[in-house]
């Protein structure tokens, strides 16, 4: 009887502990990076070199999100969930798989409706200007 109550408590604990550990790890990673940048910036006198250092260490993406790629991945995750439900788990997973696949289709359509690279945006602007 005692062992059967420990399993749910362990499952709930893991669901809380893992996200907290990830947030803690991410916080310290960014904190150490910022401290390193500050120390390096103190020793650099040339503003051009400092700007170059900042662009190297900047983790922000230069390109926007590609909804088409994400949509394809989401569609196949949905298909996988559907097949898991069809073969093993039952109707609930089939429904979840279809829902995820539908979300992927919506994301894929959004990727084609809203151009995301500068080349596609330039092409869309040129086509509009021709009209």
Structural write-up:
There is one protein chain. The chain is mainly alpha-helical. The chain folds into 2 domains: 1-60; 63-131. 85% of the residues lie in helices and 0% in strands. It contains 5 helices and no strands. Helix 3 packs antiparallel against helix 4. The longest helix has 42 residues, at 2-43. It is flat, with a radius of gyration of 24 Å.
In short:
With 131 residues, the protein is mostly helical.
Shape: flat
The overall pLDDT average reads 78
Order of helices and strands: HHHHH
How far apart lie the N and C ends?
76 Å
Query: How much helicity do the residues have?
Result: over 70%
Please state the CA-atom Rg, rounded to the nearest Å. Answer: 24 Å
Low-confidence stretches: none
Described by its quaternary structure, the protein is: single chain
Number of strands: 0
Number of helices: 5
Strand content: under 5%
What number of domains? 2
Estimated structural class: mainly alpha
Query: Can you summarize the main beta sheet?
Result: none
């Amino acid at each position: 009887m005692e062992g059967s109550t420990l399993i749910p408590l362990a499952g709930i604990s893991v669901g809380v502990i893992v996200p907290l550990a990830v947030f803690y790890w991410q916080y310290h990673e960014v904190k150490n990076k910022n401290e390193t940048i500050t120390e390096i910036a103190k020793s650099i006198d040339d503003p051009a070199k400092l700007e170059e250092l900042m662009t190297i260490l900047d983790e922000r993406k230069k390109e926007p999100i590609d909804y088409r790629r994400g949509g394809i991945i989401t569609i196949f995750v949905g298909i996988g969930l559907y097949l898991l439900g069809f073969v093993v788990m039952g109707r609930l997973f089939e429904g979840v798989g279809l829902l995820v696949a539908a979300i992927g289709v919506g994301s894929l359509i959004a990727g084609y409706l809203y151009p995301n690279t500068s080349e596609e945006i330039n092409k869309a602007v040129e086509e509009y200007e021709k009209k």
